[in-house]
Structure formats: C-alpha cells, structure tokens
Specification:
Distance between the termini of chain A: 73 Å
Shape of chain A: extended
Strand order of the largest sheet of chain B: 8-1-9
CATH topology of chain B: Alpha-Beta Plaits
Number of strands of chain A: 0
Shape of chain B: globular
Number of helices of chain B: 7
Number of strands of chain B: 9
Largest sheet of chain B: 3 strands, mixed
Largest interface: A-B, 25 and 36 residues
Radius of gyration of chain A: 21 Å
Number of helices of chain A: 4
CATH class of chain B: Alpha Beta
Helix content of chain A: 40-55%
CATH architecture of chain B: 2-Layer Sandwich
Order of helices and strands of chain B: HEHEEHEEHEEHHEHE
Distance between the termini of chain B: 74 Å
Strand content of chain A: under 5%
Strand content of chain B: 15-25%
Oligomer: heterodimer
Order of helices and strands of chain A: HHHH
Structural class of chain B: alpha+beta
Chain lengths: ~130, ~240
C-alpha cells in the first residue's frame, strides 16, 4: 500500500515538474516583457551590464550624490527616468512604474519590487522643474 | 602672405578671450552668491552656506518665502496644519512687556553641531561638507528622534504616500524631511527659492551667501552688523542668522 502510494506520489511530482517546466519554457520563449523604446540612442553601459548591475550602480551613486553633493554623474536615476518614460497619447509622460512601462514590466517579470519610486519622481519633470539637473 | 596676418589676428582674438575669461570669474564672484559646481565635483568645506534674515523688514502678512518653498519642493499638504510637511514657517514673536510683536521665517538652521545628527540612530541625518544638513531618506527609518531633538522644530514627517514629487526632491512616506537650503539650486549656482521670493515678492529681508568667503556680501554684513542666532546658548552654531530679534 505504502509502495503504491509512494509510486503515485512520485508520478504526481514528475507530472508537476514537467507541467511547470513546460509552461515556464513556453512563457520564457514568448512571454518576455515588451519594453517601451527609450528616447536616447544608447544607454550608459551595455545591455547585459545594465540588466545585471543597474541597481548596484544606482545604489553606489545615490550616496555620492546625496552625501557628497556630486552632480552630473554618469549614473543618474533622473536620467534613467528622462530617457525611459514613454509618452501617452495625450503627449504626457507615463510613469515608469506604471504597468507595462519600462521599469515595472521588467520588475514584474523578475518578481522584484521597486522601492525607488516610493520617493523618486516617476516622470521626467523637465517642464515644471526649476532645477537644470 | 595673408597667413601671418591671419595668425596675428587670431592671436589677438585669443588674447582678448583670455582676458575676458580672467575677468569673468571675478565679476561672477561679486554678483552671484554661488557659482555652479562642475559636474563630478563634490561639495567642499571651503563653503559654508548660510542666511542672514533682517526681521525688521519681514512683514507679518507676507508669506512669500513659505509659498515659494511649498511650490519649489512640491509640498502639497492635506489641510492638516499640525502634520503637513513644512520646511519653512512664519513665527510671530512678541514682547509681553512692551507689546511689540513681529514675525520671522524659521527653517532648518543648518547647524554646524546639529542635534539631529547627534541623535540619529542610522546616520540618515547628515551634514554635507559645505554645511548643508540633509536627511538621507535611503537609510531613514522614520523614528523621529531628530524631530524631538531639533530645538527649532524644523523637521517634518511624511505621513502619506507621495506622488508627483519633484525630480530634484525625492520624498516619500515614512521619512523625516526638512529644508535642504535648496541644495539642488545651490549646486546649480542659484539662490534658495525662499530668498528669491523674498527679494522679488517680499521685502528683501533674506540674504543668502557663503559665510566662509570673506568677499561675500553675507560675510561682510555679519562682520560689520549685529546679528544673532536663535537659541545661541545651545551652541549648535546655526548657519542662519537674524537681525532685529
């Protein structure tokens, strides 16, 4: 009895693994987020490096900017937003953390929450911002 | 044959440009209180940004500085005066014996020995090399010790989730915040928004400048005229000085 139950258990587990892997493979093949096109021609680093390390770059730079007052650095969340915020049909920028937008769609795909935009502006504020940088 | 002449003209032109370039920084130093820092350059202790506020010029019904700050920093409140964020406020002081009363703007005093920095358990309250006291919201845990420690009641707590923040002033729920002396403007070579509004809309009671630069207007005025600090007895060495209180 126990053996039979064990066999059924392994069979169920195998089916589960196959189903999960199968569905994951299908999702990965065509389910990657479709990211809005950035405004700029080129990012500050290669796509691979940006995918793998943008959070480290931003975390490093945030202290330099805030605590040391270094402005105009290569890495800048403000510049990320300025380049990656898409424009809606009304010509107004769409927040980068809105569903389907650059930051949010990739973070949803990776199941990683974004804390940046609890505080940081999600749209470029070139029009009404009084600061130049 | 035309080449030597052309070169001479070019040299003369370049010499003229060089002379202008030598003169220009001097002119800028005399007129602007701050000059924009080059990209990549950190703030240095060569500067000590401060304010001199002549309270005899500050009109009781004028709130130009407060309005300018709210607009600049995007501090739209929720009609809850006791808890809405305010970086600068008008305080009325009166002498009960004589009945004389007047108002003055009070904001973060950007103390050299700031109590907020002393009590902060995470190091979020910090002082930039040029004397500007800031909150590093990345590591602020919202404990509000600094709000209790500050004798100037300069800090606010963000109680609500925020959106539509200014790109130069990130702010969010659960963090303490205060006047940044418009660090984003200073780094850009401009004056704080309150000072600008006081000059254009108000009475010109506020003067911004570099206390560490003997050639600056503020340094010359505090060297020649009487000024005081609020609660100077605490020895916090604020960068904001007042006249007429």
């Amino acid at each position: 009895m126990m053996r039979r139950l064990g066999a059924i258990g392994s069979l169920l587990a195998a089916v589960l693994v196959v189903t999960v892997l199968g569905s994951w493979a299908a999702w990965a093949a065509d389910g990657r987020p479709d990211l809005p096109k950035p405004k700029g021609e080129q990012c500050i680093d290669t796509v691979d490096n940006m995918r793998r390390g943008h959070f480290d770059m931003l975390e490093h730079q945030r202290s330099l900017t805030l605590r040391q007052g270094i402005r105009g650095a290569k890495v800048s969340l403000k510049e990320c937003v300025a380049c990656h915020a898409a424009e809606g049909a009304d010509g107004k920028p769409i927040p980068v953390n809105a569903p389907g937008q650059f930051c949010q769609s990739c973070h949803a795909y990776g199941a990683v929450s974004i804390d940046c935009f609890e505080c940081h502006a999600t749209t470029p504020k070139g029009a009404d911002a009084s600061a130049q940088r | 044959m035309t080449c030597p002449n052309t070169n001479k003209d070019r040299r003369q032109f370049l010499a003229g440009v060089a002379a202008t370039a030598v003169l220009a920084p001097g002119v800028v130093l005399l007129t602007a209180p701050a000059s924009a820092r080059a990209p990549g350059e950190p703030a240095t202790s060569a500067n000590r940004w401060g304010l001199l506020i002549d309270t005899t010029l500050c009109k009781s019904d004028c709130t130009a500085c407060v309005g300018a700050c709210v607009k600049e920093m995007g501090l739209e409140g929720h009609d809850r005066p006791r808890t809405d964020a305010q970086y600068i406020r008008k305080v009325t002081v009166s002498d009960p014996e004589t009945g004389h009363s007047h108002t003055l703007p009070v904001m973060c005093q950007h103390c050299a020995k700031a109590a907020c920095i002393e009590v902060c358990p995470t190091g979020a309250s910090m002082r930039r090399a040029d004397g500007i006291v800031l909150v590093d919201r990345h590591i602020c845990i919202g404990c509000r010790y600094c709000m209790m420690a500050c004798p100037y009641k300069a800090r606010s707590f963000t109680h609500e989730e925020q959106d539509n923040q200014k790109s130069y002033l990130p702010r969010g729920k659960g963090c303490v915040e205060a006047c940044t002396l418009c660090a984003h403007r200073i780094d850009d070579g401009r004056e704080p928004a309150c000072v600008e509004a006081c000059v254009t809309e108000g009475q010109g009671a506020m003067l911004f400048g570099d206390l560490a630069d003997p050639a600056s207007k503020i340094a010359q005025r505090v060297a020649k005229e009487a000024s005081s600090r609020i609660r100077a007895d605490l020895g916090l060495e604020p960068a904001v000085r007042y006249q007429g209180i």
